[in-house]
Design a protein that fits this description.
The chain is an alpha/beta fold and 214 residues long. The chain has one domain (3-200): DHBP synthase. 30% of the residues lie in helices and 19% in strands. The protein has helices at residues 8-19, 41-51, 69-72, 78-87, 104-107, 121-130, 150-157, 196-200; strands at 3-5, 24-26, 33-35, 61-62, 73-74, 92-98, 112-116, 134-135, 137-138, 163-166, 177-180, 187-190. Strands 4, 5, 6, 7, 8, 11 and 12 form a seven-stranded mixed sheet that branches. A hairpin with a 6-residue loop joins strand 11 (177-180) and strand 12.
């Protein structure tokens, strides 16, 4: 499994590997991600094996432009569009109703999907070259430390990946903020880089109490 610098040539190679069903690791604006083409069931299945992740656990999806939303989500709310316009590209994951064509393995068998447009040229380039969204789960073994360098990815996942793109240390180890937009009032599922105050500048949101599950 080669570990190579993140540059245009190697991104091109990575996109070819993705198209052929490979699973790669790549830098993002948060931690390193584990990428498979979301519409390639075999590739996503391999990603679950590599990560040792339970198949009932959904994985987030990364897109390169808002226009790709219609490929993976339906019944998108006005609040979701407002939040996307305000904070994408960036560290915001929006939970939406999943498109029926999206493999159930991506959604964990549920009817929703977490979507993000990252503020990093590498995943954007990969998705554009592939012509399809990719998985955006962190590039670690399940319950392992979320990797902020390519070397950490290599230590955890060894030779199981088709390629690791080394973009240097992650700019932040803080996770994205997650908001569920499938109800009439969006609900903050996980606080991250974006503050509640920033979100409330865009729309009303429901904040679960500390003793309430998310």
């Amino acid at each position: 499994m080669p570990l190579v610098p993140d540059n245009p040539n190697n991104r091109s190679i990575a996109s070819i590997l993705l198209r052929e069903g490979g699973v790669i690791a790549y830098p993002t604006d948060t931690v390193y991600g584990l990428g498979a083409s979301v519409f390639n069931y075999s590739s996503v299945s391999t990603m679950f094996v590599i990560k040792a992740r339970e198949r009932h656990q959904a994985v987030p999806v990364l897109i390169a432009s808002e226009s790709q939303l219609s490929e993976i989500a339906i019944d998108i709310s006005d609040d979701a569009y407002r939040l996307a316009k305000a904070f994408w590209p960036g560290k915001l994951t929006l939970i939406m109703k999943s498109h029926p064509d999206l493999p159930s393995l991506v959604t964990g068998g549920g009817d929703t999907v977490g979507v993000r447009l990252p503020d990093h040229p590498c995943p954007q380039s990969l998705i554009q070259a592939l012509g399809a969204p990719i998985t955006g789960t962190s590039a670690n073994r399940h319950n392992g430390a979320e990797p902020t360098t390519a070397n950490e990815v290599q230590k955890q996942l060894g030779n199981r990946l088709s390629l690791i793109l080394d973009g240097g240390p992650s700019p932040s180890n803080l996770p994205s903020t997650i908001i569920d937009t499938t109800s009439s009032t969006p609900k903050v599922v996980r606080t991250g880089v974006l503050s509640i105050e920033q979100i409330k500048d865009i729309c009303d949101v429901y904040e679960p109490r500390e003793n309430e599950g998310t």
